[in-house]
Each structure stands twice: as structure tokens, then as C-alpha cells.
Design brief:
The structure holds 2 protein chains of 2 kinds.
Chain A lengths: L4 H37 L5 H16 L2 H15 L7 H26 L3 H9 L4 H31 L11 H13 L11 H30 L1
Helix pairs in contact in A: 1-4, 1-6, 1-7, 2-4, 3-4, 4-6, 5-6, 6-8, 7-8
Chain B lengths: L7 H42 L5 H13 L3 H11 L9 H26 L3 H9 L4 H31 L11 H12 L2 H30 L6
The chains are: A mainly alpha, B mainly alpha.
């Protein structure tokens, strides 16, 4: 194996991979929490709340995620300097906005698919709205949400590469930096172009992370169908 | 702080030509890519649904590779890696090619599902009427299966349009690149982002509304 491969691979795995994992884990947890809450609340028949949540869902599902990333990275600081965040944080926020809209829509469908008798039975047992949803409706709805959650995880991991466009250091960003470094003269680089090998390696790394997860999603979908 | 100087009208009236050119490029790339993704999807989807040897397996590999790698990495591979093998493509070609390859993979799954949803007895009826395999596909499976696949394939086309914004990374002057470049010069960040938001949401929302209309109009008589 050529001499340049070792340091490049180490940089991608030690500097890039943690960035991808950090952005993805924050984004998945944030999307799931906000999405489930919003998706449950939108089933309440209270027009202003429904209108607000519907607008939130349609806007962040409709915008290209890159535009949402730019809104967070370029837009928020120009409203107030206190909204200026690091690139990876911006990517997490943008992915939460997009992911929570996806989860909210899926949750709404899952909650509404629970038969009405379940609501009535829970109400008859003396549960209020919150207790009814927390103890009876959501536990059943969440089972149906399991496959979409795994697909969401895959999508979020892949879309975390958008952090690269604003200078975030994740797997793709690390690969791009190394590919650029190698083209410069020694001692920094070796004056050679190895973009093909590096980006193919990045693609393989993402495939190794995503493929088991998409298989898992397909399996869960079959089992829960 | 910049909120006080927010002036959408000034931004649009000073830059509408560039913005319109950008939107034109977005639509041009989208049109080529959507057409290509439709053809790839229909052909490879048919190969998958009819379990054509070799083509079917190769399609499965193509779909898994595209689905399990980020589209941004695919764009980087086409833009930065192909020149290493002497293949130099201009930005416009990279733009439509990369979103077409991505959309084609997702669309072949849409069409596979659509063709597989056509009841076997329909095809049997075609054979009974003396149609050959090809005639049965063209006259029975395709018209019915494509209708079943229509909503999901339009969703894929919407994603294709949204993904053209990623051409920002190769500097192709579609809408996103144009708006961000203008805002870098004029510092009218919020105005540029407003334009992006309004234009993309208008495109996406009207296409989503179109799906609902088409779904109702093209519904199969059985499910009507």
C-alpha cells in the first residue's frame, strides 16, 4: 500500500468519523423527541396549533436540506450574533429541523392509525389526555414507527455530509481536506492527485455504516407488517 | 442587526436577472435529470420485476450502492475523481448526471414495486388474448404499473429537484449557488435565503399538490 494511505485513513477515521457520529447522534435524538411530540400534538383538534405544526412540517420537509443548513449557518447570525454556532452544530440543528418534520408526519399517521376504541378504553379507565397518550397510544404507535426511525437514522448519517459545505469536519470534509493536502508540494503533501481513491474510500465507509441499517429497516418492516 | 436593513424588494429588483438565470439552470438540470430518471426507472424497474437474469442483479447492486452512500459523496466522485481517469465533464453535465444517477436508482425501486403490484391475472389475460411477452408488457403491465408507481416516482422527482441545490459544491450557477454568491457580495443574507425558501417551497408544494390531483385522475377504475 502506498505511503500516503496510512495518514489519510487515520485522519478520516480519527477526525472525520467522530464528527459524523456526533452530528448524527444529536440529530437523531433531537428529531425523534421533537418529532414525536409535534406529531402527537397535531392530532389535537385546535386550529392555531394544528396550523403552526402543519406549517413547520411542510416547510422543513419541503426545503432542500442544504438551504436549511444555510438558513442556520448564514441566516441566524445575521438576525443576532448570539445565534452564531460552529459548523457541526449548525448541521445538527438543520438536520433536527428536517428530521423532526419527517418524524412528526410519520407519528401523526401512526397515532391516528390506533383504533378509536383504544382512546375510549383508556379514557374509561380514568386516563387524561396526557396519560392516555403516554401510557396507551404512543407505546403502540412507536412500534409502527420503528422501521421509519431506522431509515431516518440512515438518511441523517448520509445528510450529515452537508456539514462539509459549511466547513464542518466530518467524514467527507476530512476526505476533501486530505485530498487537497496531497496535491500540495512536500512537506505538506506529495504533489499527487488521489481524489478517486479517497472519495471511493469515503463512499465505502458510508456504505459499511448504512447497508446493515437499511437491511435492518427492511427486516423490521417485514416483521411488523 | 441586519434585520433593520432587511429589504426583500431591493434585493429582488437589483438581482432578478441573475436569480432568474439561476432558476432557469435549476429547472434545466432538473428536466434532464427527471427525464433520465424516468427512463432508467422504467427500464430497470421492468428488468427487476420480471427477474431478467444479470440485468436484475446488476440493478440491485446499483440501487444498494446509491441508496447507501450520500449523494454529496457521489457528486464528489463524479466531479473530482473522474478527471483522474481522463474523464473531464463540465459542471452542467456533472449536475444532471449525478442527480439522474441518484434519481434513477430510487425510481427503479418505485417502478419495480409498481410493476409487481399489477395482478398476475391481468398478464394472463394478455397472454390469453394472444399477446406476446413484450406486447403484454407494453399494453398491460406498463400502463397499469406506471400508474401505481406514479405518486412515489413524483416524490423521487421532487427530491431530484431539491438535490440540484447540492450543485453549490461544484460551483454550478443554479438557484442556490447564485443566491448565496450574490449574498456574499452584497451581505443581503436574509433576503437571499428568503428568495431560496420561497422559490423552492413553491416548486415543491405545487408538485406535491399535483400528485394529489394526478392520483385522483389516474386512479385505476377498480379503486375508484
Amino acid at each position: 500500500m502506498p505511503e500516503w494511505v496510512g495518514p489519510v485513513a487515520r485522519y478520516i477515521l480519527e477526525e472525520g468519523l467522530p464528527g459524523t457520529l456526533r452530528v448524527s447522534s444529536v440529530a437523531v435524538v433531537g428529531s425523534a423527541l421533537i418529532g414525536v411530540v409535534f406529531g402527537t400534538l397535531i392530532t389535537i383538534k385546535f386550529l392555531p396549533l394544528q396550523a403552526f405544526l402543519r406549517a413547520y412540517i411542510e416547510i422543513f420537509r419541503g426545503l432542500p436540506i442544504l438551504v436549511t443548513v444555510f438558513i442556520v449557518y448564514f441566516g441566524l447570525p445575521s438576525i443576532s450574533p448570539s445565534f452564531e454556532f460552529a459548523p457541526l452544530t449548525c448541521a445538527s440543528i438543520a438536520l433536527i429541523l428536517w428530521g423532526s418534520a419527517q418524524v412528526a408526519e410519520a407519528t401523526r399517521g401512526a397515532v391516528q392509525s390506533i383504533p378509536h376504541e383504544q382512546h375510549e378504553a383508556a379514557a374509561a379507565l380514568g386516563f387524561g389526555w396526557a396519560g392516555r397518550h403516554y401510557s396507551v397510544i404512543l407505546p403502540q404507535a412507536l412500534r409502527r414507527l420503528l422501521p421509519p426511525f431506522v431509515s431516518l437514522l440512515v438518511n441523517i448519517i448520509q445528510n450529515s455530509t452537508l456539514a462539509q459545505t459549511i466547513g464542518g469536519l466530518e467524514i467527507l470534509g476530512a476526505g476533501a481536506r486530505q485530498s487537497e493536502r496531497l496535491t500540495s508540494f512536500p512537506p505538506a503533501g506529495i504533489g499527487e492527485i488521489h481524489a478517486a481513491e479517497i472519495f471511493a474510500g469515503v463512499a465505502v465507509l458510508f456504505f459499511l455504516i448504512s447497508f446493515p441499517l437499511t437491511r435492518l429497516a427492511a427486516m423490521l418492516e417485514k416483521r411488523l407488517a | 442587526m441586519l434585520l433593520a436593513t432587511y429589504d426583500l424588494w431591493a434585493f429582488v429588483s437589483e438581482n432578478w436577472r441573475e436569480l432568474l438565470d439561476g432558476l432557469g439552470n435549476t429547472l434545466k438540470v432538473s428536466a434532464v435529470a427527471v427525464l433520465g430518471a424516468f427512463l432508467i426507472g422504467a427500464l430497470l424497474g421492468a428488468a427487476r420485476a420480471h427477474r431478467m437474469p444479470v440485468v436484475s442483479q446488476l440493478t440491485a447492486v446499483y440501487v444498494e450502492v446509491i441508496r447507501n452512500t450520500p449523494i454529496l459523496v457521489q457528486i464528489f466522485l463524479i466531479f473530482y475523481a473522474l478527471p483522474q481517469f481522463g474523464i473531464l465533464l463540465n459542471q452542467f453535465t456533472v449536475a444532471w448526471l449525478s442527480v439522474m444517477i441518484w434519481g434513477g436508482a430510487f425510481n427503479s425501486e418505485n417502478f419495480r414495486a409498481g410493476f409487481e403490484a399489477v395482478p398476475y391475472r391481468f398478464r394472463e389475460a394478455g397472454y390469453a388474448l394472444g399477446f406476446g411477452r413484450r406486447a403484454t408488457f407494453l399494453n398491460v403491465t406498463l400502463p397499469i404499473g406506471a400508474r401505481i408507481a406514479l405518486p412515489s416516482s413524483i416524490n423521487t422527482y421532487i427530491s431530484v429537484i431539491k438535490n440540484t441545490s447540492l450543485m453549490y459544491v461544484i460551483g454550478y450557477a443554479e438557484l442556490t449557488t447564485t443566491a448565496i454568491n450574490i449574498s456574499n457580495l452584497t451581505l443581503e443574507t436574509l433576503e437571499a435565503l428568503t428568495v431560496l425558501g420561497v422559490v423552492y417551497l413553491t416548486l415543491v408544494w405545487s408538485l406535491s399538490a399535483g400528485i394529489r390531483v394526478l392520483e385522483a385522475r389516474l386512479a385505476l377504475p377498480e379503486s375508484r
